[in-house]
Amino acid sequence: MSRAKVWPLIYLVVFIGTLVMNYLTSMNVGRVANQDQALIQPAGYAFSIWSLIYLFIIIWIIRLLLDKQQSYDLTQGENLTFWPILNFILNGLWIYVFTQNWKLTSVIVIIALLLTLVIIYRKISQHHNHPFDRSVFSIYFAWVTVATIVNIFTYVKSLDVSHVIGLSELTWTWVMLVVATALCVYIAFKYHDFLYPLVFVWAFTAIYFENQHSLLLMILIGCIVVQLITALTILIRKFKK
């Protein structure tokens, strides 16, 4: 077996393990999340994006297995090597610890998961790859960014803490919505990525439908508009090129 195929094969094996873990525990994720539902938690339908992410990852791995040069460029030339493996392991681990109700541990794991995505995303973005390669991780990275924020809020909610540094959950929620949108805009323009903000639109729309606070609803609408304008601006620039 060529060296170019070794890493993708390992990716496939580890990712199948992640899928198995997800299948065995997926029903419990919603149950645990609803126990300490934070204001920032999206409506249940939003989590269906995981199916799209997993499908794209499978296609991405298969492409690496079938295309020797593409496999070498990504896994060797860009030094992805073990990073996707670590990411898939952390993905499966997060599902396990979250469904075990280990809230603090789940926060630590999902932050580690997010960091691996930052590294993978930056490595892929630094080179001229097939657009699909980055698209996979644009969607994945954006969703885990939102999921990390939600996970942290869920953990704090489980502690029955009404105020943190003198601020209520409502205040922290709208502050984080604005901060997350600012981060979204920064990353989207820095990497010329229109998909990244579209995932935020998906997540924030789901938060909107799950919420009843008038202030949050107005802030969410404002954030969604900014995210849509960001995605549209980048898309127009791409077509002009």
TrEMBL record:
Q: Which UniProt keywords apply?
A: Membrane, Transmembrane, Transmembrane helix
Could you list the residue ranges that cross the membrane? 7-25, 45-66, 78-98, 104-124, 136-156, 171-189, 194-209, 215-236
- Keyword Membrane present in the record's keywords: the answer is yes
Q: Write down what this protein is called.
A: Tryptophan-rich sensory protein
The protein's organism comes out as: Macrococcus brunensis
